[in-house]
Amino acid sequence: MGRAEMIQAARRKRFGAAMVLLVLLAAAGCGGSGARRTAEDLENDPQNHYRWAREQHLRGYYKEALESIDKAIALDGAAYLYYNERGLIHLNAGQPEEALLDFRRVLAINPLYTDAHNNLGATLARMGQPSEARAEFQRVLEDPLYPTKEKALANLGDILFAAGDYEGAIGELRRAVAINKDYARAYSKLGRSYRALGRMDEARESFETVLKLVPLSELGREVKQVLEDMGRVD
């Protein structure tokens, strides 16, 4: 290869390297801009705040969950699911009055959202209004399409138990486990009701069913302690 050809080849090589560098710089610039746009999109996306609120709620970080769901509602005040989630957060955070407002807001937007009736009933029961709560649970049971009626039945069982009607509570809870044989919380409430009536064999059987279903859960640990106490006391 002559000198002129060597110089030309070197120039082509340098030109090629420069073009690669320009492409990389352009890609980096676009990537940075894209990242900024994505961050802005996420900040302005109510669904993103809703998902984050649910995640924080599940972890028990109620303050952070409320901050996120408030952002979602500020961006889309017509989304009834956002109000429902905020109501659940308030309820679990020990703020039933605020939860009540949210669940009623849900039903004002979508009167056919049966979950809100169940949540409203649980809130009213927490606030010491059993008659109103029972009416809400009854609405849930009257919905032929509602998929988890066992939850409303278990809630009715709670109301009856609190009123001292242990037989009535057992009746509703047995209906709940007939619908869902894996509903551990209903079996736990059954055990509590049987124990209140002094029917210890049935109480133990119900509590032992909980341990079979969810042995490693918090509920399972609580029930295990109850069974140990029953062995010492009853």
Describe this structure as you would to a colleague.
The structure is a single chain. The protein is mainly α. It contains twelve helices and no strands. It is 82% helix and 0% strand.
Proportion of strand residues: under 5%
What does the largest sheet look like?
none
Give the name of the CATH architecture of the largest domain. Answer: Alpha Horseshoe
Counting structural domains, the number is 2
Radius of gyration: 29 Å
The best one-word shape is globular
What is the name of the CATH topology of the largest domain?
Answer: Serine Threonine Protein Phosphatase 5, Tetratricopeptide repeat
Summed up, the helix count is 12
Question: Which superfamily, in CATH terms, is the homologous superfamily of the largest domain?
Answer: Tetratricopeptide repeat domain
Which class do the helix and strand fractions yield?
A: mainly alpha
Q: Helix amount, in percent?
A: over 70%
| CATH top-level class of the largest domain | Mainly Alpha
Using DSSP, what is the number of strands? 0
What is the ordering of alpha helices and beta strands?
HHHHHHHHHHHH
Flag low-confidence runs: 3-31
> What is the rounded distance between the termini?
102 Å
Average the pLDDT over all residues and give the rounded result: 87
